[in-house]
Design brief:
The chain is about 65% helix and about 0% strand. It has a two-stranded antiparallel sheet. The two termini are about 40 Å apart. Helix 3 packs antiparallel against helix 4, helix 4 runs antiparallel to helix 5 and helix 5 runs antiparallel to helix 6. It has 20 helices and 2 strands. Among the domains are: about 80 residues; about 140 residues, no CATH class.
């Protein structure tokens, strides 16, 4: 079921502010009527929903939820002009939120007015600079123009502003892994995404993307060499002094690599791959397990928080890391995943029981975004 835009959907606290002059009984009546209308809308009964919403708007004229949901109903029926008219009036409402600007921009976009859509999103961002949804919409507009660098800037700003809003991770992962030579960022964004948005079609898509990116970026040219490429280049500044010898050059090289997250990531992954000859779920489980220790050592001076690595360490301490790795990447090699699951059914069941109750926690304190 679609979540209510409200003030209801955020926690209910603002609903009380909306109707300070109403009695608790009246407020409950408004909430019940709104929920009934949204349920009808979700079930495809938009006309019946509109009747309830109109009645609610008359009974509770200060409640922004009723006209917003009316606009959403009009949007669903593709009456974008009517929806936009309702939304424009809400821009000055005391309880306006970023969703009003988002839906208004979407209406303009469907009406073939991309400039007005962008203006709506930008107006919203001026008022709600940390909005995940508005950064998402601006990023999508840039993607439509094939301006992928600009799109990424918006998606990553959205991640930074609202780190639990999943769609910005989704698009950032897709662009980095499919449209760039800087897959390292897509690997992190993608794995955070599948943990925050479990069980969706998009989760399945990104699970496959992560697996196939490992397959394409870790290569074995021959029996004695390996190539790891998750970042197109790491800018390294090294001064060569003939008096210092090659040992000093090597030290500078290692020091330069250790100063950037991509450098540490690639270096740690390269060391983790040593000894493997192919990439599949089994070897990726081994590689990812070794990676945690190597990255912890190589990246000990980095200040970039990577919540997904901390989460993997927690899983390893509980004995669930292998099950998690098969879950995270399994859709890339479904038969191999099924064979492992059947052979490890008890471990899998225990992992899933724990996993349901202990998801990845991303906060403003531990959020991950690409350093600028």
């Amino acid at each position: 079921m679609r979540k209510l835009f409200s003030l209801l959907s955020i926690a209910g606290a603002l609903c009380v502010q909306n109707t300070a002059a109403q009695s608790d009984t009246d407020q409950q009546s408004a909430n019940n009527r709104l929920q009934a209308a949204v349920t009808l809308m979700d079930n495809g009964q938009v006309d019946s929903s509109l009747i309830l919403l109109e009645e609610g708007r008359k009974l509770f004229p200060d409640n922004i939820d009723f006209p917003y949901e009316m606009a959403y109903a009009k949007y669903l029926t593709k009456d974008y002009n009517a929806a936009a008219d309702l939304l424009k009036k809400l821009q000055k409402h005391k309880d306006v939120s970023d969703r009003v600007y988002q839906l208004l921009g979407n209406c303009y976009d469907y009406l073939g007015k991309p400039k007005k859509a962008i203006d709506s999103y930008d107006d919203g961002l001026e008022r709600f600079p940390g909005s995940g949804p508005l950064h998402l919409e601006r990023g999508i507009m840039e993607m439509k123009a094939k301006q992928y660098g600009r799109a990424l800037a918006y998606f990553e700003a959205g991640i930074n502003g609202e780190p639990t809003f999943t769609s910005n991770y989704y698009w950032a992962a897709k662009i980095f892994c499919s449209q760039s030579e800087e897959e390292v960022w897509g690997m992190i964004y993608g794995e955070i995404f599948i943990n925050l948005e479990r069980g969706s079609k998009r989760t399945e898509e990104i699970s496959k993307l992560l697996y196939y990116t490992y397959k394409s970026e870790i290569q074995f040219p021959n029996d004695t060499s390996v190539s790891v490429s998750f970042h197109k280049d790491n800018t390294i500044n090294i001064g060569w002094d003939p008096k210092s010898g090659p040992e000093d050059l090597a030290k500078q090289l290692m020091s330069a690599l250790n100063r950037s997250f991509p450098g540490v990531y690639e270096q740690s992954l390269m060391l983790s791959v040593v000894g493997e000859k192919i990439i599949n779920l089994q070897t990726l489980d081994s590689i990812r397990t070794r990676f945690l220790d190597i990255y912890a050592q190589q990246g000990k001076e980095l200040t970039v928080p990577v919540p997904i690595f901390d989460y993997q360490r927690q899983l390893r301490s509980l004995g669930y890391l292998d099950a998690y790795n098969y879950w995270a990447l399994g859709l890339g090699s479904q038969q191999e995943f099924e064979d492992w699951r059947i052979a490890n059914q008890d471990k899998w069941d225990k992992f899933i029981a724990w996993f349901r109750e202990h998801g990845l926690q991303v906060t403003n304190e531990n959020k991950f975004t690409r350093p600028r």
